[in-house]
Design goal:
single chain; disordered N terminus; 0% strand; 226 residues
Amino acid sequence: MNERNVKRTNSITPRRQPVQERAKHRTRQILDVTAKLLGEVGFDELTTILIAKELSISVGSLYHYFPNKQAILYALGDRWLETMADALTDVAALPIEDMDLVTFIDKAIERMLEVYRDERAILPLAQAMWAVPELRDLDERHDAMIIERMMAMFVRLGFVSSPNELNRLGRAYLEMTHALSLVVVNQVESRAERTIADLKRLVLCLLEPHKSEDVILPGANDIDGP
């Protein structure tokens, strides 16, 4: 690891790993308050002073846990990835081999939407993960995890596409569901329901040709990019 990467890693590393229950509780409080404020004021206006004030503690006390705003957001993003991983595990635990594609899509999207709805600051958090250099690897880990896990589920559904084609489908599924899920969580109930229905139809159109295909589609053997 070069010096630049070491400095970046140190800048987002928590001051301490909570061991005692009191420290774990305080860490959860910091992340919960950060998520709340991030949703209210956005990334640019979020400061450690504002976080500490909301927690009724000094900035110095906050720095006992995290060295800066980026470190707090990194921990918040890491928690988001863990929650997403749990949701994917839940979907993978379903009897996918015995499910029709419509049922699978319905259950997979509904479970993933639960994660988006539970994270009140998901839109500014997702934007920060993509735009802030210190958080960029969270975005990359998120994408790689979903693509890999969805590829495995596609195989269980009976897709016979090549690995490159499955990867392409996984990427398309990720981009489609992520973008529209961010829309859904910021819509009122009736509009959200219509957007969810549209999302499920779009995913069905994407995946249905591959459910029982007997031949690999043209170009499927090419080396795919992102």
